[in-house]
Amino acid sequence: MLGDIGGVEHIYLACGNTDMRKSIDGLSAIVQQNFQLDPFSNSLFLFCGCKSNRIKALYWEGDGFVLLYKRLENGRFQWPRTQDEVRLISDQEFRWLLEGLSIDQPKAVKKVLQKSVL
Question: Known InterPro entries for this protein (predicted)?
């Protein structure tokens, strides 16, 4: 379920530690107040606690919020720990994260944004 994010326009990762006791209201407040983003947008917002073995995902479905929770039985998520920062990640980086890999793969070929030619 968490890996199927086909209709999502953006994936935002809340770097650092998030209090995993927070539910929908608390997480949407973080999105609005700390990151100045709209929790009602077609975006997936990811949060991780200090143990790094569980994440929460917040998504607005049009008529209500969906809160997803994943706990790893073995291992940890490779979560960026820069405090008070939100990071836009790609679908590929999201898959790496769920597979237990770092989203910063040094040997991965990065996509190049096309520049308009005048």
Answer: Transposase_IS66_Orf2
Pairwise CA distance, residues 79 & 86, whole Å: 12
Using DSSP bridges, classify how beta strands 43-48 and 10-14 pair: parallel, antiparallel or unpaired: parallel
Contact in structure between 58 and 47 (CB atoms under 8 Å):
yes
∠ CA 15-99-13 to the nearest 5 degrees?
Answer: 20
Name the pTM for this structure.
0.80
Strand-pair category, 54-60 with 43-48: antiparallel
Q: In this predicted model, what pLDDT tens digit does every residue of 65-114 receive, in sequence order?
A: 999 999 888 888 888 877 667 888 888 888 888 888 888 776 666 666 66
**Measured between alpha carbons, how far is 115 from 52 in angstroms, rounded to an integer?**
38
Residues in the chain: 118
**Domain boundary assignment for the chain:** 10-98
